[in-house]
Amino acid sequence: ENNVIGTKNLLDAMRAAGVSRFVFSSTCATYGEPASMPIVETMPRVPVNPYGNTKLVCELLLADYVRAYGLNAVALRAPATSPRFATANFSIPWVICHMPFWFTFG
Length: 106
Description:
The chain is α+β, with helices and mostly antiparallel strands. Helix content is about 40%, strand content about 10%. It contains three helices and three strands. The chain has helices at about 1-15, 50-70, 90-100, and strands at about 20-25, 70-75, 105.
């Protein structure tokens, strides 16, 4: 509820206030357990937990606001920083050692 409803409320408030740019903190968890590494943006997003699912819904909502209202936005899909949501391939130390870049869309 916090991720999805909070993001919707924030986007609506931004629109009402005339804010035109937004950086969204998403997560690599939107990809679920990818079949190969490194993860690239064209891979399917199939979250395997509620955290990844809610972040994916927020990204889709953000994309709708980009199309519908001309919002300039980017989503940063960083690895999970909390052990509660991290998997072996999404921990900060693993990413630092194995992935040369961060993921964005916009």
